[in-house]
Amino acid sequence: MTNNIYEYKDDQDWYVGSYSIFGGIRTLTDDELEFPLFDLSKIFRDEERGFPLSVTVLRYSSDYRLLSFIVDILNQEANRNLEVIQRQGALLLVENGKLLHVELPKEGVDVEAFFETSRVRETLLIATRNEGKTKEFRAIFDKLGYDVENLNDYPDLPEVAETGMTFEENARLKAETISKLTGKMVLADDSGLKVDVLGGLPGVWSARFAGVGASDEENNAKLLHELAMVFELKDRSAQFHTTLVVASPGKESLVVEADWPGYINFEPKGENGFGYDPLFLVGETGKSSAELTLEEKNSQSHRALAVKKLLEVFPSWQSKPSL
């Protein structure tokens, strides 16, 4: 028995928990807590200690986040190997290849879609050939029970021209076109750097700021040239922006977006990341995005923030019937 205190906190959810005798879940909010405590207590009940978790819910919006919080504590304290997998809006509790519990949404799930494959882990196709971007998404979605592919796994697919004038238009073009061609669930992002003093440029042209086919180094050099006469760091404010679109055949696409604020440095720093990461100073930290580890970046980046928003609405979107 340990005295470790665990906490999860974001804008929608806030939980505090411990591994202790005669535990349970209580709420300090007025939110209706619809959580499968009875089923979990039967699975993890100890004859001497009862349900060995004490969890206090201060904010609540997501069954997925609460179940993941409980699973994290059990994995650390009870040496379990539990995993929470989202599938067609349902939550699956799995351990070592065995299904322990299924939590269904109120509206149920589409039977054919739920059982259309023998694979427990669903596949999410990321609409990019950029392995750096794919690596970030894979690290995020692997924990959610998804196998991640990218367009390099489908070399015969045509390139989708990003002819949109906004991030959402471009992300929709990629996600919806590739989903129709493959029949798969596809996530596309259009991400870019918006520099305030440049009126939001390079924006949707971030990948080709120095010209079509420009390298990261060439784009960075172009940006530094454009900011050559901006001498104060406070005047070089910028945001990394991401719009995510998830498309699936016969469904209305899901759209979320997020910004990551910071500043443009006067010279590159760091060896990690890609794109404008070496120039982008994160908030007020003075550290560039390219100086962060992948784990650090995935906890705070524009993509991480957008994925966080995505996961809050993804289960209900997945469970909606096709059009």
Automatic annotation (TrEMBL):
<comment type="similarity">
    <text>Belongs to the HAM1 NTPase family.</text>
</comment>
<keyword id="KW-0460">Magnesium</keyword>
<dbReference type="Pfam" id="PF01725">
    <property type="entry name" value="Ham1p_like"/>
</dbReference>
<feature type="binding site">
    <location>
        <position position="190"/>
    </location>
    <ligand>
        <name>Mg(2+)</name>
    </ligand>
</feature>
<comment type="function">
    <text>Pyrophosphatase that catalyzes the hydrolysis of nucleoside triphosphates to their monophosphate derivatives, with a high preference for the non-canonical purine nucleotides XTP (xanthosine triphosphate), dITP (deoxyinosine triphosphate) and ITP. Seems to function as a house-cleaning enzyme that removes non-canonical purine nucleotides from the nucleotide pool, thus preventing their incorporation into DNA/RNA and avoiding chromosomal lesions.</text>
</comment>
<dbReference type="GO" id="GO:0046872">
    <property type="term" value="F:metal ion binding"/>
</dbReference>
<feature type="binding site">
    <location>
        <begin position="302"/>
        <end position="303"/>
    </location>
    <ligand>
        <name>substrate</name>
    </ligand>
</feature>
<keyword id="KW-0378">Hydrolase</keyword>
<feature type="binding site">
    <location>
        <position position="191"/>
    </location>
    <ligand>
        <name>substrate</name>
    </ligand>
</feature>
<keyword id="KW-0547">Nucleotide-binding</keyword>
<dbReference type="GO" id="GO:0009146">
    <property type="term" value="P:purine nucleoside triphosphate catabolic process"/>
</dbReference>
<dbReference type="InterPro" id="IPR020922">
    <property type="entry name" value="dITP/XTP_pyrophosphatase"/>
</dbReference>
<feature type="binding site">
    <location>
        <begin position="274"/>
        <end position="277"/>
    </location>
    <ligand>
        <name>substrate</name>
    </ligand>
</feature>
<dbReference type="GO" id="GO:0017111">
    <property type="term" value="F:ribonucleoside triphosphate phosphatase activity"/>
</dbReference>
<feature type="active site" description="Proton acceptor">
    <location>
        <position position="190"/>
    </location>
</feature>
<keyword id="KW-0479">Metal-binding</keyword>
<dbReference type="InterPro" id="IPR002637">
    <property type="entry name" value="RdgB/HAM1"/>
</dbReference>
<dbReference type="GO" id="GO:0035870">
    <property type="term" value="F:dITP diphosphatase activity"/>
</dbReference>
<dbReference type="GO" id="GO:0005829">
    <property type="term" value="C:cytosol"/>
</dbReference>
<dbReference type="InterPro" id="IPR029001">
    <property type="entry name" value="ITPase-like_fam"/>
</dbReference>
<dbReference type="GO" id="GO:0009117">
    <property type="term" value="P:nucleotide metabolic process"/>
</dbReference>
<feature type="binding site">
    <location>
        <position position="297"/>
    </location>
    <ligand>
        <name>substrate</name>
    </ligand>
</feature>
<comment type="subunit">
    <text>Homodimer.</text>
</comment>
<protein>
    <recommendedName>
        <fullName>dITP/XTP pyrophosphatase</fullName>
        <ecNumber>3.6.1.66</ecNumber>
    </recommendedName>
</protein>
<keyword id="KW-0546">Nucleotide metabolism</keyword>
<dbReference type="GO" id="GO:0000166">
    <property type="term" value="F:nucleotide binding"/>
</dbReference>
<dbReference type="GO" id="GO:0036222">
    <property type="term" value="F:XTP diphosphatase activity"/>
</dbReference>
<dbReference type="GO" id="GO:0036220">
    <property type="term" value="F:ITP diphosphatase activity"/>
</dbReference>
<feature type="binding site">
    <location>
        <begin position="128"/>
        <end position="133"/>
    </location>
    <ligand>
        <name>substrate</name>
    </ligand>
</feature>
